[in-house]
Amino acid sequence: MNTEVIAINPADPAAAPLARAGRILRQGGLVAFPTETVYGLGANALDTQAVERIFAAKGRPAANPVIVHIADLADVMRVAGEWPEVAERLAAHFWPGPLTLVLRKAAAVPDAVTAGGPTVGVRMPAHRVAYELIRAAAVPVAAPSANRSTRISPTSAAHVLADLAGRIELVLDGGPAAGGLESTVIDLTTSPPRLLRPGLIAPAQIEAVVGAIDVPTRYATRAASATPSGPLRSPGLTERHYAPAVPLECAASESGRIIELCRQGTRVGWLTLAGRERRCPANALQMELPADPAGYAAGLYAALHAFENQAVDRIVVELPPATEDWLAIHDRLRRASTPEAS
Question: Which helix or strand (DSSP H or E) is residue 119 part of?
């Protein structure tokens, strides 16, 4: 299969490529597109065979559900079996935006979307291309990240093509995805609501709208996480996820780990926080990311992709602060880490 790439203006997307992409989705095809988080790989969420093509293209385990994207609140009941008052409040405050609400699923949603479970994750994206694509398709769009399973999520069309060229029909190239991390996922079928995946919207922001929520990882940002048993309610819950092809480990900047590895002849990609003076060994490749969570999130996956392209032997990430505003970053680094390297 030849994967077509169409450049599209993220601020003012042209109607023609959106119409073409929408037709592909309605006909059971796969389209990669930018969102305000990362690039997504879309299919008609109500078409079982189309959704199964997502899993085949990504090599994604059937037990890992995918999020359904909508462009109008009127479409919620096409995919959700209920719309509680807490969902109404969160949608009014955060939609369109990077918040996924887990709800009881509607009968029309195929089991392939939900991993056979009774719930479905739903969100309304804020990125203009994503939003207008869903409107052009006129169907809810199931869309995990547009990469091979467990790999680094893509924040550019080039990242998508590196993993999925020849596996999907179309990529809408809208430039870099600004947010850089996947959406926050909160389960509204429990009381209190439970954070399943930290993301660009912090727990404190959600609690300001609906009161206290259950945050299992709130005080364990560095702890190992096990894959839950049974049908997963959200993507991003498996032990290994968001991972580069080379071993990744986290280390304190003063640990001497970089020097130790370089003395062994290892070509190291060293990811550090900006604003601190460090001496980088000659055979290490250093990249800096902003020392604020939003700036760091925007650049994290792009930096990991860049290290892979530089053919490093190992990636060492300087640990960011262990505070709640860095919760999503710690979650991604924990799941991307190679167990034997940590």
Answer: strand 119-123
- Cβ-proximal residues to 342 (8 Å cutoff; 6+ apart), any chain: 249, 250
Half-sphere exposure of 118 (CA within 13 A, CB side): 5
- Which residue in the block uniquely carries the two structure tokens 């609140």? 73
Percentage with pLDDT > 90 across the chain = 79
Tell which of 150, 185, 210 closes a domain. 210
Q: Report whether 121 contacts 101 (CB < 8 A).
A: yes
Based on the fold, state whether residues 44 and 123 are members of the same structural domain. yes
Is the same domain home to 105 and 167? yes
Any idea what DSSP says for residue 32? E
Q: Across-strand partners of 6?
A: 172
pLDDT tens-digit readout, 238-261: 677 788 999 999 988 666 888 888
The answer to whether residues 188 and 252 belong to one domain is no
Burial of 227-264, coded b for 16+ CB within 10 Å and e otherwise, reads eeeeebbbbbbbeebbbbebbbbbbeeeeebbeebbee
Q: Which of 164, 184, 210 is the last residue of a domain?
A: 210
Q: Are residues 188 and 308 in the same domain?
A: no
Q: How does the average pLDDT of the chain come out, rounded?
A: 91
Closest CA to 50 of 109, 121, 127: 109
- What are the C-alpha distances in Å from 160 to residues 113, 143, 175, 219, 321? 21, 13, 12, 34, 30
Q: Do residues 172 and 278 both lie within one domain?
A: no
> How many independent structural domains does the chain possess?
2
Query: What is the number of other CB atoms lying within 10 angstroms of the CB of residue 39?
Result: 29
| 230 occurs within a structural domain | no
- Which amino acid is residue 153, in one-letter code? S
Which residues, 6+ apart, have CB-to-CB distance to 74 below 8 Å? none
List Cα–Cα distances, 331 to 80, 180, 290, in angstroms: 28, 14, 18
What distance in Å separates the CA atoms of residue 337 and residue 246, rounded to the nearest whole number? 10
What's this model's pTM, rounded to 2 decimal places?
A: 0.93
d(CA 40, CA 56): 15
Give the domain range for residue 38.
4-210
Other CB atoms within 10 Å distance of the CB of residue 165 = 13
For residues 33 and 125, is the Cβ–Cβ distance under 8 A?
Answer: no
What gap in Å lies between CA 198 and CA 7, rounded to an integer? 31
Element (H, E) at 300: helix 293-309
